[in-house]
Amino acid sequence: MWFHWPVLLAGLWLALGAGVLALSHHLGRPVQLCLFKRATGVPCPTCGFTRGMFTLLRGHPIEAWLFNPLLFSLLTVLGLGVAARVFFGKGLEVRLAGRERIACWTVAFVLFVANWLYVIRYVG
Questions:
Q1: Residue 49 in domain
Q2: Residue 55 lies in a domain
Q3: Residues sharing a CB contact under 8 Å with residue 48, sequence separation 6 or more, in sequence order
Q4: DSSP state of 34
Q5: What sign for the dihedral angle of Cα 67, 43, 31, 29?
């Protein structure tokens, strides 16, 4: 089926995160995997997502969302889209004209920057 790769990649990502948590616990200190943060000292735009996923798996969706609101909102929308395709056999298709496309990209950029500033300030 078409969704095997995303499931496999998500499983590998979670396994990597679990391995890092185990290594951190074994060493008694946090292990920094993010090369961007290691090089710059600033959290990357996706920082907090792995911690948020483990928080979500423990049953705390609001706390998970607070780690990276944009990524968890996108994950929710993606999950709803996959559920609609699986259960109803219909996908969502959006067609935008030139100005609408520019507006959507502008909104996406503003949300990206706002989320990154949030991650830097509160999560990093």
A1: yes
A2: yes
A3: 67, 68, 119, 123, 124
A4: -
A5: negative
Interval 5-50: pLDDT, tens: 777 877 887 788 788 778 877 888 877 777 788 889 899 998 988 8
Nearest to 70 by CA among 56, 97, 57, 52: 52
The count of other CB atoms within 10 Å of the CB of residue 23 is 13
Q: Which two tokens stand for residue 46?
A: 């996706």
Q: Give the CB-side neighbour count of residue 29, counting CA atoms within 13 A.
A: 2
β strands within the chain, DSSP E: none
Q: How many CB atoms lie within 10 A of CB 116?
A: 19
Q: Report whether 69 contacts 117 (CB < 8 A).
A: no
Residue 18 resides in a domain: no
Range of the domain at 69: 32-123
By C-alpha distance, which of 59, 51, 26 is closest to 122? 51
> 3-class DSSP state for residue 25?
helix
Number of domains in the chain: 1
